[in-house]
Amino acid sequence: MPKPPGDIKPLIRYFVELFKLQVTGKKNAPDAVRVIPVVERISGESIYEFRIRYRSAWKTRRVSIEPLGEKVESKSTCYKAIYDDLLVVKIPPRPITDFNAYLNYLNRDRAIARRIQKSIPCVYPELGAILKKVPLVRLSSYISEQEAEDEYIRLLTKHPQLQDYLKIGEGFVFFMTLSRFRFFNQIIDSIHHAADHTRREIIRNGPEAISDFVVFEALYGEDNDRIYYDMHAIAKTYDRSVEKILKDAGAPWSLADYQKQEWLFSHIAGTPPDINPENLPEGTFTRIEKMTRKLVDEKKPAIDEFRKIVHKTSKNKHFFSNRARIKGLIINLLELLYRLKNRTAAVRDLKPDNMYIAAFLDGADHILANPIAYDLGLIDLETALCYRSGEDGRIAQPLLAGTPSYATPSHIFGNRILRAVYGNELPRIFHLQDMYAVLAMIFKTVAGRNLFTNTARLMPEISRLKKKNIQDFPGLLTVYQNACKNFWKTASGELREQLDKHRYRLSDVEVTLPGHLKKYLTAEYRHELSALNHDGRNNGESGRKTRREIRGETREDKALQIQYVKTLKAIDGAMTCDFLILFLFNRVHTAMQPARPDNRPDARSRPDTERAGKKQVIAEGGEK
Q1: 57 three-state secondary structure
Q2: Considering 91, 276, 305, 489, which has the largest number of Cβ atoms within 10 A of its Cβ?
Q3: Secondary structure letter of residue 59 according to DSSP
């Protein structure tokens, strides 16, 4: 069997054995299966074809496997697999070899899912996701899903050998069925991946633009005249070369201008021309192809410049045509955050790879512009918790993990440390972990790239320092405080840089929120001001100064009261995305930066004191 790349080899082997079982009806059938790589895409998706000869006939099928998201230490690795259905396969970081322990993990995810499922669609591991494909395990089609799960448990307990179909290697893994739903990251990629649109733009508009200066300027601007003349000369040279080849071949006719243009611009776009060689004299097609490739190679600098301006134009055109969809997705990201808070639950690892569009799109992506037509669903609840205190007043300790691009230091420190720093605000800290991920996803939905790339690189070092001081509580507390100081300084700087870099798009997308989301954001803002006023961490003169500032009792801090009113007005209107991202970031930053007498995270220390938005939104409540 050819070696699949990276860590997917055990997964390939698992599906090979499943295919053999489905074909032969026997476990460990001796028949060899040929595994043939078909496609390996840049995204990481690999497609393999399985072939097995059984009873003098060849049986074939394909499987598609793709890693989901960044690898996170201490957290399961997830893969998307298409094998009849769209599956998510979750492999724990440490093998689970005890069946009862495995069932406990299943029950935990199921309990959290049931808590939030009334308001948030979610997919969680189920035994039936994979066992329904195993011929040796057959259940009646008339029983409910829950009855089926109970029956699977009974069969697996009675016949332990069947448990092997839940294992990859020595450990149990988790299977989830996504049916025809699409991942959230696939939607983001479709909005921003302009390569196909660029190719179509080159073939469709390139010939007319290069033959007419007025058309070229209308499409690609007045600053690219030199590119027009270079490409016009290339087209003329190409036309003469084709005519010479046809004349030398003794052709009694010439190719139509549109055919020659299509041939040239197909090569420029990187696609094969739609030309039938049989309509040309023998050998002519080959000579024109060779000449075209040579010309395109010789004129590569000029052609690359043309491709670049077409790509930029196509990308902007594609983005603006998707603005309504982007707005709908942003509203549903905030809706997800709002519903999680209402259920006193936090996912703590929200990211596009762990979410899906809870609607059957089937090419009808236009419904994304209508946020009430679909929901954002959750896939992986491994790090999730319900932060409502139990009977003993304690909050259960969740799994300490997070994806660096969407995580803060609070994700990887235990409740004891967080309680020492934040006191009774611990439940809100869990909610704000999700808010941090949501603001990063809003940025990615609009800009098409990660927001906190540099900041994410700090997380492995923070984790290393944490492990080094794991037995020393005072030392661990100091590590957390210092980590937060460095983390939020870096995040604030990167936020300013990225908002400035992508201002033209972020400020162009305005979102008007439904009433309940406006109330939610307003309540978050007011809660923050109240917490700053009464926070036990701000005591003595620092605390008195904080209270004076909140009430606006000093001339210096009248500006805070003005900002307060303007921020509430901004929430109530149409918010640009740069303002919205800043607003959410400041809620998280103010709450999570450990406050000290000499380091209180007040409004003046935050990154949004810079001008924000094309309409000069100053701070959070700036005038438009």
Answers
A1: strand
A2: 91
A3: E
